[in-house]
Design the sequence.
């Protein structure tokens, strides 16, 4: 990792106002982030983007966790250029390719073996929701039960099976289909820090008259990103794992956003010591390219050939990029993440000290942190101000009240500091001028 700021230059002059008009005219109303960040981006490198007007932005958004290793990561870029220039296989369904074999070997050698983990790897469709769909489907096949337990504030995707275990009402419409066979129970901290909600889960599963059947699986995020940076305690996670073992329930950890080093370790569940039956990985696993996998304990790999399939189950370009970025884990990567984490925490603590009367709070781990503003309206004003000052940041939580800091794990120290200064200035600007 370098300690000097990355320099990039604007590549093409264009009429940004016309480009934005074309987006509004041609793209569906479902577009989201183009409204949050109302500009047209042109080039990017590391943790900096430049739009078509030549304005630079520091990226604390990180593709919602897809760019843990930064834009155009040099390791991935060189590997991809070499692969493409040598006419490497681009599409192969799930046929064997050299790129696939090399990714599998690298993942085993760099990630699984050092952690004493034994998993089979399933290549699902290219998005995170595809991984969740496959995990739920496999759990139901394995346990011959249809029920699934998820948690309050959960976010697992938007296809119908994954949507059923996603909690936020904004994404639901009863016309989409039934949410039956899914129960949402309170996540850790939902009832306050003094209430251990795993005890409630244990109670209802032990009681045959609770109305909640023994599920095929329990699916959870160890840190709920879209739910508001809610961090589950290690004890709670261990309790959930014990409940699963007692009742022969599969434990699925959705590590799509919090895996790939976001919490300081490659898997977010490493902090607690639990060993999930299925792990969903996507976003940064492909080095910025579409790619999703499920890690399955060998005894649960019950698929018949082609029983769960898809045209893009295994992206060869993502195999190449994904293998390249795994090389970061052969370096002192965790120490570098920890150093940057301390910088973020220090800045958030300083903000809270300046505004003790505002009731602000922050929480997180590694390089995912949330500043809870208590108001989605206030958070959005800060996002807008940060954008105007050259910083991309988004919010999460039930009412979008939690500002989410998710810089690249590879961000250089100077750029991180500059981004944090802008972030604090934006908070000050909105809070100091609040009526």
Sequence:
């Amino acid at each position: 990792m370098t300690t000097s700021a990355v320099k990039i230059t604007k590549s093409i002059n264009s009429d940004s106002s016309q480009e934005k008009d074309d987006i509004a005219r041609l793209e569906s109303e479902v577009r989201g982030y183009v409204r949050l960040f109302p500009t047209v981006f042109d080039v990017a490198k590391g943790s900096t983007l430049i739009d078509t007007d030549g304005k630079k932005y520091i990226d604390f958004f990180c593709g919602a966790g897809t760019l843990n290793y930064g834009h155009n990561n040099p390791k991935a870029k060189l590997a991809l250029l070499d692969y493409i220039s040598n006419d490497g296989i681009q599409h192969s369904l799930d046929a064997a390719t050299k790129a696939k074999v090399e990714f599998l070997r690298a993942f085993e050698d760099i990630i699984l073996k050092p952690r004493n983990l034994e998993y089979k790897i399933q290549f699902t469709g290219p998005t995170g929701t595809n991984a969740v769909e496959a995990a739920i489907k496999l759990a139901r096949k394995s346990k011959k039960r249809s029920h699934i337990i998820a948690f309050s504030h959960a976010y697992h995707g938007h296809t119908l099976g994954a949507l059923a275990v996603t909690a936020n009402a904004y994404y639901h419409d009863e016309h989409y289909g039934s949410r039956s066979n899914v129960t949402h129970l309170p996540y850790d901290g939902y009832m306050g820090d003094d209430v251990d909600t795993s005890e409630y889960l244990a109670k209802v599963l032990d009681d045959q008259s609770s109305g909640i059947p023994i599920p095929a699986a329990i699916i959870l995020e160890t840190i709920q990103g879209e739910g508001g940076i809610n961090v589950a305690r290690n004890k709670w996670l261990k309790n959930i794992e014990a409940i699963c073992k007692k009742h022969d329930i599969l434990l699925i950890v959705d590590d799509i956003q919090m895996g790939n080093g976001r919490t300081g370790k490659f898997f977010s569940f490493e902090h607690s010591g639990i060993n999930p039956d299925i792990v969903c990985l996507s976003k940064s696993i492909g080095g910025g390219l579409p790619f999703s996998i499920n890690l399955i304990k060998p005894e649960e790999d019950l698929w018949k050939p082609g029983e769960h399939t898809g045209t893009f189950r295994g992206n060869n370009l993502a195999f190449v990029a994904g293998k390249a970025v795994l090389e970061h884990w052969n370096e002192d990567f965790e120490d570098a993440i920890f150093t940057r984490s301390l910088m973020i925490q220090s800045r958030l603590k300083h903000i809270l000290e300046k505004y003790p009367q505002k009731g602000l709070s922050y929480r997180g781990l590694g390089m995912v942190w949330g500043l809870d503003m208590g108001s989605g309206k206030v958070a959005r004003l800060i996002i807008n101000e940060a954008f105007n000052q050259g910083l991309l940041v988004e919010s999460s939580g039930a009412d979008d009240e939690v500002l989410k800091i998710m810089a690249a794990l590879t961000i250089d120290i100077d750029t991180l500091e500059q981004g944090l200064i802008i972030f604090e200035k934006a908070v000050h600007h909105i809070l100091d001028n609040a009526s």
